[in-house]
Structure formats: structure tokens, C-alpha cells
TrEMBL record:
Residues 96-285 form the ABC transmembrane type-1 domain. One of its GO terms (biological process) is transmembrane transport. PANTHER family: ABC TRANSPORTER PERMEASE PROTEIN MG189-RELATED (PTHR43744:SF12), ABC TRANSPORTER PERMEASE PROTEIN MG189-RELATED-RELATED (PTHR43744). This is Cellobiose transport system permease protein. It comes from Microbacterium enclense. Belongs to the binding-protein-dependent transport system permease family. Keywords: Cell membrane, Membrane, Transmembrane, Transmembrane helix, Transport. It is a multi-pass membrane protein. It is found in: Cell membrane.
């Protein structure tokens, strides 16, 4: 009988010590249970504040101090929510409308100007461009609190205190948004595509509309979502420049704690009400955002 011998392992499949290399993991293989366990722990930690708010917000004024409270939500959430909505000091519906309008305008403006500036820094060559980008990014290190006093003096002289424009105008641009879009467009749009558009006779702005805008959609969608959430949750500047007759939703809900006795079941019911629009936004826009990001991540 002829002896069967194993085929020698090629030199390329051996490490420097001469041992056979371990096979590399196949791309697209399913992750192990450790990954799912870590993701599950992160998910539970993220959902716990919402559950705690629901637990307290569905009880009464004594629930938060009850050491033997049940971990099952009670049945008072809708009554507490009705108390928040019906409180004349809160002005819930005008505050909700102000938050929607201001957050939407700020998100749209930041996306528009950041995409324009990001395209200029990423694909246009002009004198001082790199240093100007460094200056824009450096402004992110300046604390927001340093500009509160001059901003308030400025809007007071303009007569804008108490007006919604006082919180929209200072947030129309974002240094982070400019940096975000610059990095994305620099990596996602090849220079050859821009040269082809110029050869076809397209102007700089036409090239931006036909080449830059479609390529920037995934990053612009994420930037718009993050900006909307940040503007929605902003409390510091609106609390200073707005009054009680024309507040945003976080400022209006803070009035629930202005009394001598604070009912935390009503306060946390109001907090849950303020998060419902954000949850709806993630539910309806999440799939489109993820699909856009995946499409933008695929490179030919």
C-alpha cells in the first residue's frame, strides 16, 4: 500500500517561529455570547432610568420615599400626566411647540451650514484653510458659560429676551458639526469625482449639490438627529433668556419643582412626557438612519 502523507504547510501560512498560523475569523461570522452579554448589560443600564421614571411617575407622592415599594409600575401615570398638562404654570402645549420649532430649526440650520463648511474645508483649496479649520475646532474648547453674559446683554439691547429667536440664533452653527462633516466628506468623496464634474462644466456650487449633498446624507442625518436631541434637552441658556410665558419644555417642567413641596411622581411623569417625542423620532427615523449609514459605509 502507498503511504499517505500530509501536504506540507506553505511558508506563507506559518508565523516567524515556524508554527502554523491560526485561521483568521471569517468576515460576517456571528459574534459570541460574550458580545451579546455585554450589549445586553449596556441595554439594561440604558433602560433603567426610563423604568425608574415610569415606576415613580406612575405612583403617588409617597412612592419615592417608600422603602418597600413595588417594582411594578402603578396606575397613576395618566393622572399625573394630566396634572402636568393641566398645570397653568407649566404652559405645556406652548412649551412643547416652542421646543419642536426651535429644535427643528436649529437642527436644519446646523446641518446646512456644517455641510457647506465641511465641503469647503474637505474639497476646496484656499489660503489659510487648514488653520481656519483648526480655529473652528479650537472654539469647542471654550466653555459655553463664558458667552452667557455678553449674549444676554446683546439680546437685551435688541429686545429679544423672552423671544424664541434668542435661543435659535446663537445655535445656528456648530463647530462640532463642521468638523464632523469635514472628516466625513474628506473620506467619502474621491477627488476624481469632483474633477469629472468640473470637466462636464459644473460650477463649484453645482458640484456640491450633485456630488457632495448625496454623499453627505448619512452623516448629515446623524448630525441632524444629535443636534435635535441636544437642542431639545438644552436647559441652561433657555432658562436664562426666556420667561415663564414663553418657555421651552425643559424650562416649563422645571417649574414643577418651584413649590415648597415637590411631588416627584408628577415631576417624573413630566420627564417621561418630554421624552416621548424623542422616542417617536428614533422609532420612525432610526431605520432610515441606519440604512443610510450602512450605504455610506460601503465603498466600491
Amino acid at each position: 500500500m502507498t503511504a499517505v502523507t500530509a501536504a506540507p504547510i506553505p511558508v506563507a501560512d506559518r508565523d516567524p517561529a515556524g508554527r502554523p498560523r491560526r485561521p483568521r475569523p471569517v468576515r460576517g461570522a456571528r459574534p459570541g455570547w460574550i458580545v451579546y452579554a455585554c450589549l445586553g448589560a449596556v441595554l439594561l443600564a440604558s433602560l433603567f432610568p426610563f423604568y425608574w421614571s415610569l415606576l415613580i411617575g406612575s405612583g403617588d407622592s409617597s412612592t419615592i420615599r417608600d422603602a418597600e415599594r413595588s417594582w411594578i409600575p402603578g396606575g397613576n401615570f395618566f393622572a399625573n400626566a394630566a396634572s402636568v398638562i393641566g398645570d397653568p404654570a407649566v404652559n405645556f402645549w406652548p412649551a412643547l411647540l416652542n421646543s419642536i420649532v426651535s429644535s427643528g430649526l436649529i437642527a436644519a440650520s446646523v446641518v446646512f451650514f456644517s455641510t457647506l463648511a465641511g465641503w469647503a474645508f474637505a474639497k476646496l483649496r484656499f489660503r489659510g484653510g487648514p488653520w481656519l479649520l483648526v480655529f473652528v475646532v479650537g472654539t469647542m474648547a471654550v466653555p459655553t458659560q463664558l458667552g452667557v453674559v455678553p449674549l444676554y446683554i446683546l439680546f437685551s439691547e435688541l429686545g429679544w429676551t423672552g423671544q424664541l429667536g434668542a435661543i435659535i440664533v446663537p445655535a445656528l452653527t456648530s463647530a462640532f458639526g463642521v468638523f464632523w462633516m469635514t472628516q466625513y466628506l474628506r473620506q467619502s468623496v474621491p477627488d476624481e469625482l469632483i474633477e469629472a464634474a468640473r470637466v462636464d462644466g459644473a460650477s463649484s456650487f453645482r458640484t456640491f449639490l450633485t456630488v457632495g449633498v448625496p454623499a453627505a446624507r448619512p452623516a448629515a442625518a446623524m448630525l441632524g438627529l444629535f443636534t435635535f436631541v441636544s437642542a431639545w434637552n438644552n436647559f441652561f441658556w433657555p432658562f436664562i433668556v426666556l420667561d415663564r410665558q414663553n418657555p421651552t419644555l425643559p424650562v416649563a417642567l422645571s417649574l414643577l419643582q418651584s413649590n415648597y413641596f415637590v411631588d416627584y411622581s408628577i415631576v417624573l411623569a413630566g420627564v417621561l412626557l418630554s421624552t416621548i417625542p424623542l422616542l417617536l423620532l428614533f422609532v420612525f427615523a432610526g431605520r432610515q438612519l441606519v440604512s443610510g449609514i450602512m450605504q455610506g459605509a460601503v465603498k466600491g
